[in-house]
Design brief:
9 helices; about 90% helix
């Protein structure tokens, strides 16, 4: 009986030991889980730390580069202020700062207008770019067609007119421009053009043909109705020329 009691006590002790070991295992498992979480967070923090370290290194490098520049600027500022001397007063700077603070609404309004002007300029450029490209293409077509060469030659003609005619000649041209245009209009009428063409053709034919006629043949030609009409027109022309006013010349002829 005593042996059974001792056995039961040992079993209870063993169960208590097992329970204690189980609690220890659970505690270790929880610690392992916390450790894994900590390691995971450390892994997440390491890139940020590396980035921060790199930024710190870049900042240190920037400071090393800026320190000489800052020293040079300070030296230049001291030299410039030394040149100013007594002309500069601190109250002037304070007055300038107060003016700037007081005029902040005006400055903001000017900035708004500047932004609007820039946006308008961008819009105008966007709209005018196709028109500009089209104008360039059109000018290229005109250049290929020879309009600019014609304009250059016309400019040379105008230069000759300006250099070879006096102011009095231009005034006389202005006074008689109506008569000149009327004459040109009459000369360009279909019947006048046809008459001029016939006269040129006849003169060319007479200059190319051999002279074989006699005075008798010429007298016979005078009886031709066409010749009579031509002589009548020639006589009318002579009468018109005799009725025109005499043209005075500088030589008095």
């Amino acid at each position: 009986m005593l042996a059974d009691t001792q056995l039961l006590e040992k079993i209870d002790l063993l169960q208590a030991e097992i329970h204690a070991q189980s609690q220890k295992l659970e505690a270790l498992s929880e610690q392992n889980r916390l450790l894994r979480d900590m390691l995971s967070k450390i892994d997440e923090i390491v890139p940020y730390l590396e980035e921060q370290r790199q930024r710190q290194a870049e900042w240190e490098e920037l400071k090393r580069d800026l320190i000489p520049i800052g020293n040079q600027m300070i030296k230049l500022s001291i030299d410039e202020l030394a040149e100013i001397g007594n002309d500069f007063e601190l109250r002037d700077l304070l007055y300038l700062l107060k003016r700037l603070l007081r005029d902040i609404p005006l400055i903001l309004s000017l900035l708004d207008r500047l932004e609007a002007a820039v946006e308008l300029l961008d819009e105008v450029q966007r709209l005018t770019k196709p028109a500009f490209n089209q104008a360039v293409h059109k000018l290229d077509e005109l250049e290929r067609a020879g309009y600019f060469k014609f304009a250059r030659e016309s400019g040379k003609i105008l230069h000759r007119v300006v250099t070879e005619f006096t102011e009095e000649d231009v005034k006389a041209l202005g006074d008689n421009i109506v008569t000149i245009l009327t004459t040109v209009k009459n000369l360009t009428q279909p019947e006048m053009m046809a008459l001029t063409n016939q006269a040129i053709t006849a003169i060319r034919d007479d200059s190319e043909a051999e002279t074989k006629g006699s005075y008798l043949s010429l007298l016979k030609d005078l009886s031709d109705p066409k010749v009579k009409r031509g002589l009548a027109k020639l006589i009318n022309l002579v009468k018109a020329l005799s009725d025109s006013p005499q043209i005075s010349t500088k030589e008095g002829a």
